[in-house]
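INTERNAL TRANSFER SHEET
From: sequence group
To: structure group
Subject: histidine kinase

Please process the attached sequence and return the structure record in the designated field. Keep the field labels unchanged so the import script can parse them.
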Amino acid sequence: MNDGFFSGITHQNLEQDFKLLKAALDASVTGIIITDNGLPDNPIIYCNKAFEDMTGYQRSEIIGRNCRFLQKDDREQAARYQLGEAVANGNDAVVEIRNYKKDGTLFWNELYLSPIYNDNGQLTYFVGVQHDITLRKRAEEELKANQAEMEQRVEDRTRSLREKEEYLSSIFETIRESLMVLSPELKVLTVNHDFIKTFKVSKEETEGKQLYELGNGQWDIPELRRLLEQVLPTNNPVVDFEVSHDFPHIGKKLMLLNAHRIELEGEYKDRILIAIEDITDKREIEQRKDDFLSIASHELKTPLTTVKGYVQVMDKLVAKTGDEKLHNAIEKTSVYIDRLNNLITELLDVSRIQSGKFKIYKEPFSFDNMVQNAVNSLHQASPSHHINVIGETGIEIVGDEAHLEQVMINLLSNAIKYSPDEKEVDVQLSVVSNFVKVSVSDKGLGISREEQKRIFDRFYRVGNIQQKFPGMGIGLYICSEIIKNHGGNLWVESEPGKGSSFSFTLPLTKSDLEEDAK
Ligand code: ADP
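Return from structure group:
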């Protein structure tokens, strides 16, 4: 036996026992070393096989060296100081230390250091038991790195969400319309600055309250309840719902309410955004405008009727004198008076439609004749254009002949007015199923898709035409009201630069059809 630590043992049985012990240590998968504290620099005097495997050194390269040779140049490790202290004080220590194999590869060593004392209580040896924990360390480091990355991502995401929230909330607060957000149970979650200003309430009076319990129950309206509770959940928005109410603090107001359900998953799911617009002043101004229109057109109409009467008297008197020149002048005056009269009648029609006083008087008449009369009057007024009537209905319908002729005259005069360089206008007549249908087509300016949606609105005119084409933008509005009042439909098909086609259909009653079948 010449294995350092074991070599001094001579007793036969003991030697046997130690051989067994040494074999057992060599069989261990745990690296084990013993250092001799009594020798200078505490050298390794024993290492087992597992330690050789762990470090890549052979016993002959290990025995006699201080353990530090395993750290190579990697000296600045806290674990080293811990070990130093344990050795100096003769204590236990457990450290995780970076060591290097013979080929330079790093391995993490989990080292249990225990002092051994002799019978005199003298520190003689240290036993070091070690495990290669590189894999565990690596896994721990990876975990740490992953955790750090995750934390970074969460932080980034939180920051970006916070920024988005601040961004949205600044829009929400800046918007000059009252906004409120409700929970799916119709509890107020947030209101914006404009809401507080408009309704003269505090956030505390509003947020957290049930919508119907706000103020003096101004939003507790059966129809609004139905829209919010039954229509909104089907993903249909509440559009322009008018609420007229004597609101606390602000008095009688007319509010326009729009509500949308927020279709998001998660925290914001099914929240409801309500926008409230105070239209009291706007409505009042509109009303005043309508009143003015009504008064002005009435006031203009009366003297004009008197003027027309005098002109007729003058015409009769002049006829007796035989003065041609004077007669022509009076004829022209009469034409302009009629034109002025028509304009005023149109304005009166608009104000009657607005006030619900527009009346339709229905009587049977020949549809084709009515169309022909309109065509004839336009032939006279605008001889430059040629109007082709194509087809016929052969039908006598029940309707307001004068107003339907007004529709035809409006469509024809528009077709002529808005096609100054094209001289042909077509009028197509037909019977489609149980409807009569008329189309007035020109090859003039045409109308863009966007404008097509608006030309039937009152006082709407396509931009930039005012200089070139006079008009008030009410003809089509009146036409569509007249056709609506007959249960019919008026529409336009058009392409800019190619021309327009305005068509309307009127439903035929059973009696219209029976009458014509005779
Ligand atoms: P007005 O002709 O007095 O402006 P209308 O209500 O009859 O009023 O027509 C509304 C607008 O529709 C017109 O200003 C014009 O821009 C457009 N429009 C109507 N008819 C035609 C047409 N046949 N071709 C092109 N634009 C038309």
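Handover comment: The two ends are 139 Å apart (CA to CA). The mean pLDDT is 91.
Transfer complete.
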